[in-house]
Amino acid sequence: MSNKRLKTYIAKTLFDGSVIGKEGKYIAIPNKLKDFKILVKFNNQQMTIEKWLNADGFRRFPDKFGRKDSSGNTLQYTLGYFKWNPIVKEQPQQHSIFGALAQMPPEQYEKLRAKLHSKKVV
Questions:
Q1: What does pTM read for this prediction?
Q2: What is the dihedral of CA 22, 81, 58, 74, to 10 degrees?
Q3: Three-state secondary-structure class, residue 8
């Protein structure tokens, strides 16, 4: 069990794995979260990343706002790419009387229907 603090990251998009030479859908996490356990949320689904350094691939980019460091160099940031593998929670099955009736054998259904309609209502 990890003793790292947990950060939540809300992803805006999934990426095609081809951007890092892989197949499937990937999520990109910025290196500013590399020291945390990360709970990633996307479209009402979520997954946990224990260690940012275990990414399937990395890409480095210049700061999109053109910010510079103290030496005048453009700041860089790195994205770690992780295969999107959300935790799927099983939904409890909802049962309804109509579903049960629809699955009932016709002879059993007719017997029940006759019994219900034979009762006199006062």
A1: 0.67
A2: 130
A3: strand
